[in-house]
């Protein structure tokens, strides 16, 4: 079954009681039992909810996994994964990482005795030097946020298999439309469903998808015990969003390409970060593991005047200045003061994240209008 057909049909069934083609919103907290312990698979909605079950099944199908688990936010999904570890364990991740992930790693879980290493993961050798007897997990984000670095998932899958490590892939920027990390050796795929998967900037949710039954059982225990589960209406909204994921992602990619090429040729733009360019670091890896290059584009203006970047962000009209990404509407942001403000400036600068970097989430509007907006804002 091809991706577009799976996006609409896989993992979901018409409602058995009414035949409703769209999964109903089961707005209930509890379920009647015939006899103590004799029920229809549902006891309490923190543990299971029929709307959430359908969404989890659909996500597993799209990622070529076996089990899906949904959480109240992407950070709640990250939190659940980290709770698989214990004091003394170590994690290796990229030095170009979403600020929220960096914050929960260093400000929350580091306090519980888990050690984190951040390095340039474009070279597997950098990670191999950090792996030791205490290393239990490698955390991959590709394309990275916000420099869109490309990390070779298959290479890290082989390393983790050899060293008996868990490999987690944050697939938020790419979505399963562009890449399926479980097929390349990842043990867990994590999503902020808030972004492309929901796709309409109207829901906050996270997910984890796995193939392994034991890993699913451990994560499901954490999901139920800690209780960071989404409500049924939010699950309904993401289910609705998934049905157009392939159509939206195709347009995001088309528009992203045109915007990136425009910026690359603009006389006031110094550098454009987009994995579709042949000169982009690890472009060959992106060609190998991705089906297209996505709708995220970052760029820097010439010079290092932060006021120039601020002026552009304030002058944009169609690109809304806002947190988040992946909606049908185009967004712009300033990572240094917004999404990545929790990362110390010294660490940001070492990773190449300058104070003048602008990140674009290119939406599905007409590309000509988006380019005209950028042209008038940059001047």
Automatic annotation (TrEMBL):
UniProt enzyme class = transferase
Q: Which cofactor does it need?
A: pyridoxal 5'-phosphate
- Keywords of this entry: Pyridoxal phosphate, Transferase
Checking Gene3D superfamilies in the record gives: Aspartate Aminotransferase, domain 1, Type I PLP-dependent aspartate aminotransferase-like (Major domain)
The Enzyme Commission number assigned here is 2.5.1.48
Q: Name one GO molecular function term.
A: cystathionine gamma-synthase activity
- The lineage's top-level taxon is Bacteria
Give the transmembrane region(s): none
Family of the protein in this entry? Belongs to the trans-sulfuration enzymes family.
Q: Which NCBIfam families match?
A: PRK07811.1
Instruction: Write the protein's name.
Output: Cystathionine gamma-synthase
